[in-house]
Write a structure and sequence with these properties.
The complex is a heterotrimer of chains A (328), B (521) and C (332).
Chain A: H1 2-16, H2 21-39, H3 47-72, H4 80-95, H5 102-125, H6 131-149, H7 163-166, E1 168-169, E2 172-173, H8 174-192, H9 194-204, H10 206-211, H11 216-242, H12 249-252, H13 255-265, H14 277-297, H15 301-327
Antiparallel strand pairs in A: 1-2
Helix pairs in contact in A: 1-2, 2-14, 3-8, 3-11, 3-13, 3-14, 4-5, 4-6, 4-11, 5-6, 5-11, 8-9, 9-11, 13-14
Chain B: E1 9-18, E2 21-31, E3 36-40, H1 47-54, E4 62-67, E5 70-72, H2 77-83, E6 85-88, H3 100-104, E7 111-112, E8 115-116, H4 118-131, H5 149-162, E9 167-171, H6 179-194, E10 198-202, H7 206-212, E11 215-220, E12 223-229, H8 235-243, E13 263-271, E14 278-283, E15 287-292, H9 298-305, E16 313-318, E17 321-322, H10 328-333, E18 336-339, H11 343-347, H12 354-365, H13 383-391, H14 407-420, E19 425-429, H15 437-452, E20 456-460, H16 464-470, E21 473-478, E22 481-487, H17 492-499, H18 506-509
Parallel strand pairs in B: 3-10, 3-11, 6-9, 9-10, 15-20, 15-21, 18-19, 19-20
Antiparallel strand pairs in B: 1-2, 1-4, 4-5, 7-8, 11-12, 13-14, 13-16, 16-17, 21-22
Helix pairs in contact in B: 4-5, 12-14, 13-14
Chain C: H1 2-23, H2 26-41, H3 48-73, H4 81-96, H5 103-126, H6 132-151, H7 161-168, E1 170-174, E2 178-181, H8 182-200, H9 202-212, H10 214-219, H11 224-250, H12 260-270, H13 282-301, H14 306-331
Antiparallel strand pairs in C: 1-2
The chains are: A mainly alpha (328), B alpha/beta (521), C mainly alpha (332).
Chain lengths: 328, 521, 332
C-alpha cells in the first residue's frame, strides 16, 4: 500500500509543485499511524488528536515562517526566543487582565518587535556583523533587560484575549486558522511581491542583486523585521494559552533553534535563496506529528528530545546526500 | 547608417593601474554604432580591464570616457547600464534558482502596490525573448539552472536589450557554445547591429573575429597596438601585432635528448566518467604539453592522475611500480605535485601567511602532532626562505598573508609549495593564466629549470604558443581521449587538427567545441 | 645568502615587531582595561588570591572556548558542548553513586562519552555533510534529552568530594598565595596542551587550512574530513573537562552547561576568531573567555543587576565583531 501511495503522492507533488519535504511528512505520518496501531491505542487519526497536533505546532509554526524569511536572505535570527518571552511578559503586564487595554498592549508589543527586527537587520546589513553573532547579541540584550525587570509571571491576559489560544470557529481552532493565514500570506508575499523576488535574489547572490540595482540592505532589514513580527505573534499566542507571561516561556520553548531546524527540515537552504514557507509548514508539522506520536506511544518526554534531535539531523542529511548524488 | 557619424562610445587616453601592474596604458579607442568591434590580445593584455572600464565596473585612473560625444564617468555598473551600456561576462550574472523572467527584470519588475504583475512580467519577458529570437526556445518561467549555457547567454542578452542598451559588451561570448549555438549568436549579433547597436567583444577565436567584426583592436601588455578594419588585415598580421615578438625569443630552450631520463609516470588504459582509455608516459626531465579545447578532458586528466577524481579503471605506474592513487594525499606521497588552474579556489589559503601556504603539502605528509618549524622542516629549517628566493616571490615578509600578493606572486607561492615537497612529477594546469607578461616568462623559465633538474612535467595549457614553445612532446586531447601525440615544435595547425578530432573544420565535428586556444586558426 | 637573511631575519625583526604589534589581538587590551576597572572598584580582586579566584571561576569557560576555537577555525560551530557539560555532571553524579572510589573510572567513562559525541558530530559534518550548526544542534537536543532521561528529570545523588576537588579544591600550602586552586592547575595544563597542539604542531595549521579553503586543503594532501572530526573531538573533550570543573564548583545541576555553547562561541569571536574559519588563536580565545568573566565581575562590582550582565555581554559581542568587520575592511 505504501509504495503505491508514495508514488501517487510524488506525482501529486510534481503537479502542485509541493516541496519534497511533503514526501517526508507523508512518510512520517504513515509511520506514526502504523506505530500507533501496533504499539499505541490506534487513535492517532482521531480528529481530536489530529487537531491537537496542529494546535501544538502553531506557536513554533508562526515564528518559523518569519525565520524562513531571514534564512531565505541567507541570514539567521537567534533572538526570536527572547523576543517571544518579551512579548509574552509585556503583553500580560500591559493588559493586566483588562480587555480594554488589549489593543494598546498588542500595538506596543508589535512596536517592540518592529524595533528589534530593525536593530537586527541594521546590525547585520550595515555593521556587517555575522548574523549568528548579531542576533545572539540582541537576544542577550533582550534577555538581560527582561530578567532585570521581571522575575516570574506578571499580569494576566483577559479572558477575551484567550480566544486566540483556545477559541474555535465551528470545529476549527482559531489558532490553526492563524497559522494557516500566516503561511498563506507568507507564501503570497514570497511568490507574488517584488519584495519576495528580491529576497530570493539577495539570498541567492548578493553581488548579482547589487549589480541589478537592488538595495540589498533594505531587503535584509525588512526580512528581519518580518521575522521579529512573527515572533511577536507567537509570543501573543503563547501568552494567550498560558494566561500570563513569564520571562522563560520563549527560551524554554527553544523557539530559536527549533524554528531554524523546522525551516531547514522544510527544505530552505542555510545558505539562502532557496525554499519557502510552504516547506516550513511541513517541517513544523513533522515535529508536531513526532510529538503526538511519542505521546501516544507513551515515550518518555526526555527520550522524545533525543529522538527529535536525531530526526532533525537525519532529515537534513537526507537532503545533503540527495543533492550530492545529483551533483555527482 | 552612415559611419561618418559620431562614435557612440569612446575611450580617450585611458590608464588603469593595479598594485604592481599597469593594466592599461594610455589607451584610446572609438566604437561606432551599428558595428561589431573585436578586441584581441594575449591573456593579460588588458582586454578584460578595458571591458570592465567601459561597463563601469572599474573607474580609470587617467583618461576619460565619452558616450555619444559627452564625457561620462560611472561609479557603479548599474549607472552604465542605465545609460545604455551592458556587459555580459563569461561567468553569467544570473540567479540559477530563479526564473528567466525574474532574472531579466530583477529590480524592475512591473508591479502595482508592490505586487508583481505576473501577466505583464510574462508579456514583457516574452517580448524581449522575441527580440533575441529565443521566444520558442526559452520559457519565461523556466528556472535558469535548467537552461543550457547558450540559453543562459541569450537570457543575458535579452536582459541587456531590456535596458534598451546601445552598446553591448561581451567577454568571450562563444567560448562555451556548440557550433549551432554559435550560428544562432552570430545571426543575433547581425540583427542587433542592423538596429544600430554597437557590439564589442573579446574573443580568442579568430574565425569569429574575422567573421563578425568590422573593426579589430589589438592590445598587448596594456598598450593599444592598433585598430584595423577586419577586411584590411589578415589573421597572421593580427597575430604578429598581438605577440609582437618571435615565439622562440621568450620561451626557454627545449630539453636535449640526454637530459630526458627514465619513465617517471605511466598511465595505462585509464578511464573514468569523463576520460576514456588514457595511456600516457612521462619521463624525467621532459615537459609534456597537453593541448585540447575546453571540455576535452584536459583538467580531468590532471585530476585523475592526482587522485582528485581518480581513474576508475586502468593502472598508474610511478617509476615502474603500479600504485593506486585514490586521493591527492596518495599522489603527494608519491612525490607528485599539481599546480591547479583555479588558483583562488584550489591553490592558495588566502588568510594564511606565505610560509604556511608553502609548507602545507609537506606538513600534510608528516604526523599530525609533529612539531612544526616556522620556516621549514626539521631537516631544512630555512626551506621557505630558500624557495621564496628561488621562485622570486616579491613580498615584504615571509609572514605576509597570501591574499595581499599579486596574482603572479601567488602563482609563485603555489609553485614553491610543490617545490617544498620535492616533487619529481609536477602537473601544471594553465600555469600562466591571468598573469602579467613578466611573471609569465619567469614561470616558464622555472618550469624548464625544474625539468632540467630531473622533474617530469605535465603542462596543460589552452594557449597554443605556450604549449608549442614549452613542450618537448605534445599530447592532444579530444572528447575525453588522447587523440594524438606530436613531437616538439609541432605547428598550431597540426595541434588543432587533433584537438578537433577530425580532418574537417573543427566547427562541424566537435561535440562540445569550447574552443579557447588562443590562436585558433 | 645576504639577500636571504634580509628576507628571513633582519627585515623580519622590525617587521615582526611591527606586525606583531599590529597583530596583537585587541582582546588583550580589553582584558587589561577590564582588570584595571575591577581594581579601581575593589583592589582585593587584583591581589593574587583574587586573581586566582577569578581564574578558577572562569576556568570552565576558558577551557571550553579553547576547544570551540578548534571547530570555529576549521569552519564550523559546535553547539553541543553545553549539553555535553550538563551530561558530564549528571553522569558523574549517577555513576559515582556516592562511592568516592568510583570517581576515577567514572571520569574515564565521561571522557569516553564526550569523545563519542564529538566523533559523531564530526562524522555527521564530514561524511553526511550536515551543516555543523544543524548537526550539533541536533546533538544538543539529543544529549539534553538523554541527560534528563537518565536522571528522570530531577537531579539525583551528589558528587563525591574527591570528584568535586577539581572544581573547588585547593592545593596548599603554596608560597606567596598560600593556596592554589586545582581548577587553575587544570586550566594551565589544558591551555598549554591546546596552545601547543594548535600553534606548534601540524594539527593547528591543517585546521586553519581546512577552514580557509577546504578545496585547496584537499589538494594539498590534507585529509579534510579527518581534520574536522578531530576538531569536534577536541571540542567535546574540553566540554567534558569544563563539565567536571563546573560540577565541582557548582554541584549537581542538570542544566549546568546550558548557554555555555553560545558564550564559548562569543568568547572565541571576542578573541579574534573568524566565524566560518581560517583565522584564530588559542591564547586570544582564552583571553576572550577571561575577559567575558572579568566583565561579569566588573558589572557585579558596579552593582549592575545580574540579568543586565547578559545585556551588556550582548552589546559587547556585537561591538567587537562590528569592530573586527570594519578594521578588516579598512586594511584591505
Amino acid at each position: 500500500m505504501t509504495v503505491k501511495t508514495l508514488s501517487n503522492v510524488r506525482s501529486l507533488m510534481r503537479e502542485t509543485r509541493l516541496p519534497p519535504v511533503y514526501a517526508i511528512l507523508v512518510v512520517v505520518f504513515v509511520a506514526a499511524v502504523v506505530l500507533d496501531a501496533i504499539f499505541g491505542r490506534g487513535q492517532i487519526t482521531s480528529s481530536t488528536i489530529l487537531t491537537n497536533m496542529v494546535v501544538r505546532s502553531v506557536a513554533l509554526g508562526i515564528v518559523a515562517m518569519g525565520q524562513t524569511f531571514v534564512m531565505l536572505a541567507a541570514s539567521i535570527d537567534l533572538s526570536v526566543a527572547y523576543l517571544i518571552s518579551v512579548t509574552a511578559v509585556m503583553a500580560s503586564y500591559l493588559m493586566q487582565g483588562d480587555p480594554n487595554r488589549v489593543p494598546m498592549a498588542v500595538a506596543a508589543v508589535f512596536g517592540i518587535g518592529a524595533v528589534v527586527g530593525l536593530v537586527n537587520g541594521l546590525i547585520v546589513s550595515k555593521l556587517k556583523v555575522n548574523p549568528f553573532i548579531a542576533t545572539l547579541g540582541v537576544g542577550l540584550v533582550l534577555k538581560g533587560l527582561l530578567n532585570a525587570s521581571f522575575e516570574t509571571f506578571v499580569g494576566a491576559v483577559p479572558r477575551s484575549f484567550q480566544t486566540l489560544g483556545y477559541g474555535q470557529i465551528g470545529p476549527i481552532p482559531i489558532s490553526i486558522l492563524v497559522l494557516l493565514a500566516v503561511t498563506i500570506i507568507g507564501a503570497l508575499v514570497l511568490s507574488r511581491t517584488k519584495f519576495g523576488a528580491h529576497l530570493y535574489a539577495v539570498g541567492g547572490n548578493v553581488e548579482t542583486s547589487r549589480l541589478s540595482g537592488l538595495r540589498t540592505d533594505r531587503v535584509i532589514i525588512l526580512a528581519h523585521v518580518i521575522c521579529s513580527l512573527t515572533a511577536v505573534l507567537t509570543g501573543l499566542f503563547v501568552v494567550s494559552r498560558l494566561r500570563s507571561g513569564a520571562p522563560w516561556v520563549g527560551t524554554d520553548g527553544l523557539y530559536d533553534l527549533e524554528s531554524i531546524a523546522a525551516v531547514v527540515v522544510g527544505g530552505t537552504a542555510l545558505s539562502g535563496g532557496k525554499g519557502g514557507v510552504v516547506g516550513t509548514l511541513a517541517g513544523v508539522l513533522i515535529f508536531g506529528i513526532l510529538d503526538t506520536m511519542f505521546n501516544q506511544l507513551g515515550v518518555d518526554t526526555f527520550l522524545k528530545q533525543v529522538l527529535r534531535g536525531a530526526i532533525i539531523i537525519l532529515a537534513v542529511a537526507s537532503y545533503t546526500i540527495r543533492s550530492r548524488e545529483k551533483a555527482a | 547608417m552612415a559611419n561618418a557619424q559620431l562614435p557612440i562610445l569612446e575611450a580617450r587616453n585611458i590608464t588603469k593601474r593595479f598594485p604592481g601592474v599597469v593594466a592599461l596604458n594610455d589607451v584610446s579607442i572609438q566604437f561606432m554604432p551599428g558595428e561589431v568591434h573585436a578586441v584581441v590580445g594575449e591573456n593579460g593584455a588588458g582586454k578584460s580591464t578595458l571591458m570592465k572600464l567601459l561597463a563601469g565596473a572599474y573607474t580609470p585612473d587617467e583618461g576619460e570616457l565619452f558616450f555619444q560625444g559627452s564625457s561620462i564617468s560611472f561609479n557603479h555598473p548599474r549607472e552604465a547600464q542605465e545609460v545604455g551600456i551592458s556587459i555580459i561576462y563569461q561567468e553569467f550574472n544570473l540567479l540559477p534558482e530563479r526564473t528567466v523572467a525574474q532574472n531579466i527584470f530583477l529590480g524592475r519588475e512591473p508591479s502595482r502596490y508592490g505586487v508583481v504583475d505576473q501577466r505583464q512580467l510574462m508579456r514583457q519577458t516574452q517580448a524581449v525573448l522575441q527580440r533575441v529570437g529565443a521566444e520558442t526556445m526559452i520559457s519565461p518561467d523556466a528556472e535558469v539552472k535548467t537552461l543550457s549555457i547558450a540559453q543562459q547567454q541569450l537570457v543575458e542578452i535579452a536582459k541587456a536589450l531590456s535596458f534598451d542598451s546601445k552598446v553591448l559588451i561581451m567577454d568571450e561570448p562563444t567560448a562555451a557554445l556548440a557550433t549551432h549555438e554559435v550560428e544562432i549568436l552570430t545571426r543575433l549579433i547581425h540583427k542587433l547591429i542592423a538596429n544600430g547597436m554597437a557590439v564589442i567583444f573579446i574573443s580568442h577565436r579568430f574565425t569569429e573575429v574575422f567573421d563578425l567584426a568590422k573593426m579589430i583592436t589589438v592590445l598587448k601588455d596594456g598598450q593599444h597596438v592598433a585598430t584595423v578594419a577586419a577586411d584590411a588585415a589578415t589573421p597572421s598580421q593580427v597575430i604578429t601585432m598581438m605577440v609582437g615578438r618571435e615565439l622562440d625569443q621568450y620561451f626557454p630552450e627545449l630539453a636535449r635528448a640526454d637530459e630526458i631520463g627514465a619513465v617517471a609516470l605511466e598511465v595505462v588504459n585509464g578511464s573514468n566518467a569523463k576520460l576514456h582509455d588514457i595511456s600516457l608516459k612521462l619521463r624525467a626531465g621532459e615537459i609534456v604539453g597537453v593541448s585540447g579545447l575546453q571540455g576535452s578532458g584536459r583538467t580531468e586528466l590532471a585530476q585523475a592522475i592526482f587522485g582528485v577524481e581518480p581513474f576508475t579503471s586502468g593502472r598508474i605506474l610511478v617509476k615502474g611500480t603500479e600504485r593506486p592513487i585514490k586521493t591527492p594525499k596518495a599522489a603527494i606521497n608519491l612525490r607528485m605535485g599539481f599546480v591547479t588552474e583555479d588558483r583562488k579556489a584550489e591553490g592558495i589559503f588566502p588568510n594564511q601567511p606565505l610560509n604556511d601556504n608553502i609548507l602545507a603539502p609537506v606538513r600534510a605528509l608528516q604526523a599530525l602532532l609533529r612539531r612544526i618549524k616556522r620556516f621549514g622542516t626539521a631537516e631544512k629549517p630555512q626551506l621557505v626562505l630558500e624557495l621564496v628566493q628561488q621562485v622570486d616571490v616579491r613580498t615584504p615578509s615571509i609572514q605576509q598573508e597570501v591574499q595581499y600578493l599579486s596574482g603572479g606572486n601567488q602563482q609563485k607561492v603555489v609553485l614553491a609549495k610543490w617545490l617544498a615537497s620535492t616533487c619529481d612529477i609536477l602537473i601544471f594546469d594553465e600555469p600562466t593564466r591571468g598573469i602579467d607578461v613578466d611573471a609569465k616568462a619567469s614561470i616558464h623559465e622555472m618550469i624548464r629549470d625544474l625539468a632540467q633538474a630531473g622533474t617530469a612535467v605535465l603542462m596543460i595549457s589552452s594557449e597554443l604558443p605556450e604549449v608549442i614553445g614549452m613542450s618537448d612532446r605534445i599530447v592532444v586531447m579530444w572528447d575525453g581521449r588522447i587523440s594524438g601525440e606530436l613531437p616538439a615544435g609541432a605547428g598550431e595547425e597540426a595541434i588543432m587538427h587533433l584537438a578537433t578530432g577530425h580532418q574537417e573544420s573543427h566547427r562541424t565535428a566537435v561535440p562540445e567545441p569550447r574552443g579557447e586556444g588562443t590562436l585558433e586558426l | 645568502m645576504a639577500q636571504l637573511s634580509t628576507i628571513g631575519q633582519e627585515k623580519s625583526w622590525r617587521d615582526r615587531i611591527l606586525s606583531g604589534l599590529r597583530s596583537v589581538s585587541p582582546i588583550y587590551v580589553v582584558l587589561i582595561l577590564l582588570l584595571i576597572g575591577i581594581g579601581t572598584q575593589n583592589p582585593v580582586f587584583l591581589e593574587p588570591s583574587g586573581i586566582l579566584n577569578l581564574l578558577r571561576r572562569a576556568a570552565p569557560l576558558m577551557i571550553l572556548t579553547a576547544g570551540q576555537l578548534f571547530v570555529i577555525v576549521s569552519g564550523g560551530f559546535d553547539l553541543s558542548v553545553g549539553s555535553i557539560m550538563s551530561l558530564t555532571v549528571i553522569g558523574a553524579s549517577l555513576l559515582i553513586n556516592n562511592d568516592p572510589t568510583n570517581a576515577w573510572w567514572v571520569i574515564l567513562v565521561l571522557f569516553g562519552i564526550g569523545i563519542v559525541a564529538g566523533l559523531i558530530n564530526g562524522a555527521l559534518v564530514s561524511y553526511l555533510k550536515v551543516p555543523s550548526l544543524i548537526a550539533t544542534l541536533g546533538m544538543l537536543l539529543a544529549l539534553r534529552g538523554a541527560g534528563l532521561y537518565w536522571t528522570g528529570g530531577a537531579p539525583r545523588g551528589y558528587l563525591t568530594d574527591n570528584f568535586r576537588a577539581f572544581g573547588r579544591g585547593w592545593l596548599e600550602p603554596v608560597p606567596w598565595v598560600e593556596r592554589f586552586p586545582y581548577a587553575v592547575i587544570v586550566l594551565i595544563v589544558v591551555s598549554a596542551i591546546l596552545i601547543y597542539l594548535f600553534h606548534y604542531t601540524n594539527l593547528g595549521r591543517q585546521l586553519l587550512a581546512v577552514g580557509d579553503n577546504p578545496r585547496a586543503a584537499k589538494l594539498a594532501g590534507i585529509q579534510v574530513e579527518k581534520m574536522r572530526i578531530v576538531a569536534f573531538a577536541v571540542s567535546a573533550v574540553t566540554a567534558v573537562i569544563a563539565g567536571i570543573l563546573q560540577g565541582g564548583f557548582g554541584g549537581v545541576n542538570p542544566d549546568a552547561g546550558d548557554g555555555y555553547e553560545l558564550q564559548a562561541i562569543s568568547a572565541a569571536v571576542l578573541g579574534g576568531a573568524v566565524l566560518l574559519g581560517g583565522r584564530g588563536s588559542v591564547p586570544a580565545a582564552i583571553a576572550g573567555a577571561l575577559a567575558l568573566e572579568a566583565l561579569f565581575t566588573l558589572l557585579n562590582l558596579l552593582g549592575l543587576p545580574k540579568p543586565l550582565r547578559d545585556a551588556v555581554q550582548g552589546l559587547i559581542i556585537i561591538g567587537a565583531v562590528a569592530y573586527a568587520a570594519f578594521s578588516g575592511r579598512r586594511s584591505r
